[in-house]
Design goal:
The chain contains two helices and six strands, in the order ββαββββα. A six-stranded antiparallel sheet has the order 1-2-6-5-4-3, with helices on one face. The chain is 28% helix and 37% strand. By secondary structure, the chain is an alpha+beta fold.
Length: 94
């Protein structure tokens, strides 16, 4: 797999030193420009998870105060979709 991201804990970190504000920039980009509808949100002390489907694949955009912003999936077969969304958000080719 050739991409500009690295995989950690079942997902892809797209910005390691990201702020919460940057997380909200990504959520806005997904909802307004990529027509993604968020299906659920989880707020924890260290994490904020926003769940959505992209081309039928269940994904999660996560802000973690220690790891930055990541895209996650419960299934290994969805890694190509994660890389595609990461490329869309960062302007890089996945």
């Amino acid at each position: 797999m050739n991409n500009n991201y690295y995989t950690n804990f079942g997902g892809t970190i797209i910005e390691e030193q990201a702020s919460l504000n940057r997380f909200y920039v990504f959520t806005t980009e997904l909802s307004k420009n990529k027509h993604v509808r968020f299906t659920g949100k989880d707020d924890d002390v260290d994490n904020i998870d926003w769940h959505f489907k992209y081309r039928g694949k269940p994904l999660t955009l996560q802000f973690n105060m220690f790891n930055g912003i990541s895209l996650l999936s419960q299934r290994d077969k969805d890694i190509p979709a994660i890389n595609e969304v990461a490329g869309l958000l960062t302007g890089k080719t996945a």
